[in-house]
Write a structure and sequence with these properties.
β6 and β7 form a beta hairpin. The protein has five helices and eight strands; from the N terminus they run βαβαβββαβββαα. It has a single domain, classed as Beta Barrel (Hypothetical Protein Pfu-838710-001), CATH 2.40.320.10. An eight-stranded antiparallel beta barrel has the order 1-5-4-3-2-6-7-8, surrounded by four helices. Helix content is 27%, strand content 43%. It is an alpha+beta fold and 188 residues long.
């Protein structure tokens, strides 16, 4: 199972960050409609695992992905092993998950600008994500690695890219979108 070595940071000047990323790669605009699932007794959440169905909408159409994220291998970044596959029939997938006893935990949208490029010897995906419900913008930069030993050096390289974009360790966050959206809904 590949490990998604990823760092996430809050972005204060998204126009500037997008401009710098646009010098590295073309922007791919999309909207992610994410639905997270769990068992009625929250077995996944309580152990730090995630099960998500994501519908990605672009001008060219839509794609649906089923993603399982295992427990964190790097608490400082939240990086997790990840397995993902395309789903042809969203209704059938929802029926399968319900039949297996999974329930919808939370659903929300992310408005994303994706940039794919190579830097510091890594194939990277940088996503500038605006969560309308949170009224915040984040950047996620990730690269897939094959072993735990590669996570630390990869994260160091990603931090270097974040620095080139004007972001510091103080901007980094490990708070998940699911936790932030849940918190916002409970306050509202």
């Amino acid at each position: 199972m590949a490990i998604e070595a990823e760092l996430k940071a809050r972005v204060r000047d998204s126009r500037h960050v997008r401009q710098l990323l646009g010098q590295r790669a073309d922007e791919e605009a999309s909207v992610y409609a994410d639905v997270y699932y769990d068992t009625p007794d929250h077995q996944l959440t309580s152990t730090g695992r995630e099960l998500r169905v994501r519908v990605i909408r672009t001008d060219a159409g839509s794609t649906t992905l089923l993603t399982y994220k295992d427990v964190t291998v790097d608490p400082g970044s939240g990086s997790k092993p990840e397995t993902e596959t395309a789903v042809d029939d969203l209704d059938a997938m929802s029926g399968i998950l319900a039949g297996l006893g999974f329930e919808e935990l939370i659903a929300f949208e992310k408005h994303c600008s994706n940039y794919r490029f190579t830097a510091r010897g890594l194939d990277l995906l940088a996503t500038v994500a605006h969560i309308p419900e949170l009224d915040e913008t984040f950047i996620e930069i990730e690269s897939l690695v094959d072993s735990h030993a590669e996570v630390g050096p990869t994260l160091d390289s990603i931090r270097g890219v974040l620095a080139e974009l004007g972001l510091t360790r103080d901007d980094e966050t490990t708070e998940t979108y699911t936790d932030a959206v849940t918190s916002r809904r409970n306050l509202g």
